[in-house]
Write a structure and sequence with these properties.
By secondary structure, the protein is of the alpha/beta class. 45% of the residues lie in helices and 19% in strands. It has a domain of 144 residues: Rossmann fold (3-Layer(aba) Sandwich). The protein has 8 helices and 9 strands. The chain has a 5-stranded parallel beta sheet with strand order 2-7-1-8-9, sandwiched between helices. Strands 4-3-6-5 form a 4-stranded mixed beta sheet. The structure holds guanosine-5'-monophosphate (5GP).
Length: 214
């Protein structure tokens, strides 16, 4: 069954919640499109231009924001982050499900612009595990970890703005839960206007055939 247009999924969560790993399961899968954000922060070891992010200068970030290049944008722990609008619009129009991994301020901007976007918040089972994951990944300084944990305290107050909560204990389970949610979404009557119109036309033809047989 082909949906008329794609669904937009906004995935947010505490830094260290594992949302990036969940997103990776959808990379290069047909029917899904992962948005690549622009950021003014420096690449971490292993991050790749155009895959992890488009790494741009602070000046370039401000210029693009001014020009309306972004669907949403926000400042997170001293750096700018933004979603290129054209990519999202093109893929939704083509019927793909688009996934954005963005933080709260961006999620709220999306909610306003695209009310039927689905907002999902990813969390580890406990805050202690969150802390350990962030400290063990050793990609940030102690000061940066502290800022991210403080940010988590703030973000935790806003989980109520989201539609779904995804508890990421085992990543395979979290992915399976997300896939189930997406399948259900694809079955919505409102997402299948074209298919339903076709069924209606076929039923009309059937009725005419049946009437002619009397
Ligand atoms: P990180 O620096 O760890 O890659 O990302 C920091 C935060 O920025 C994460 O919560 C991530 O989800 C968020 N983020 C990444 N890209 C975007 C974006 O395009 N827009 C917004 N609003 N947040 C983003």
């Amino acid at each position: 069954m082909n949906q008329t247009k794609g669904n937009l999924y906004v995935i947010s969560g505490f830094s260290g919640s594992g949302k990036g790993t969940i997103m990776e399961h959808f990379r290069n899968r047909s029917g899904y499109a992962l948005s690549v954000s622009c950021t003014s922060r420096k690449p971490r070891p292993g991050e790749q231009e155009g895959i992890s992010y488009y790494f741009i200068s602070h000046e370039e970030f401000l210029k693009r924001a001014e020009e309306g290049f972004f669907l949403e944008h926000a400042v997170y722990v001293d750096h700018g982050y933004g979603t290129p609008a054209a990519f999202v619009e093109e893929h939704l129009a083509a019927g793909d499900d688009v996934l954005l991994e963005i933080e709260l301020q961006g999620a709220l901007q999306i909610r306003k612009k695209i009310p039927d976007a689905v907002l999902i918040f990813v969390t580890p089972p406990t805050i202690q595990i969150l802390r350990e994951r962030l400290e063990n990944r050793k990609t940030e300084s102690q000061a940066e970890i502290r800022k991210r944990l403080l940010r988590a305290v703030e973000e935790g107050k806003n989980i109520g703005c989201y539609d779904y909560i995804l508890v990421n204990d085992k990543v395979e389970d979290a992915v399976a839960q997300l896939e189930g949610l997406m399948r259900a979404r694809r079955s919505l009557v409102s997402a299948n206007a074209g298919f339903i119109r076709g069924i209606g036309e076929d039923l009309q033809k059937l009725k005419q055939e049946l009437d002619n047989c009397i």
